[in-house]
Amino acid sequence: MSYLSETGNLASAPELRTSAKGTTWCSARVIHNYREQDQAGTWHDTATIAYDVVVTGRKAEQLVAAAESGGNIGIAFAGKYRVKNFKRNDGSAGIAYEVIADQISVLLGQDVTLAKTGHATAEDEPA
Prior knowledge:
By secondary structure, this protein is mainly β.
């Protein structure tokens, strides 16, 4: 598995879940648009990649709360990264990008309300 650090926007608000062991977690779909500037100085989207970002513990709870209050928010994330091949319903091949996040944050410049909480706990560490 490789390590990735990336930014993007939430495609939708993730849903908070609880594992059989009682750990809270969520899977957030994050969209990153790659852009290039042409010789005239105009920016163009060149590629779009969707990442499935798995977040655990208090960080998952905070991400869900921020998404519910702020909508399509921009985030930065980092963690172990893997590419998975799959077959779509129509039989064509697809690629999924999954990140088990150990770091996640809301990007500044957005109208999102965050509250300071206590220190991180062992539950906040990725499984």
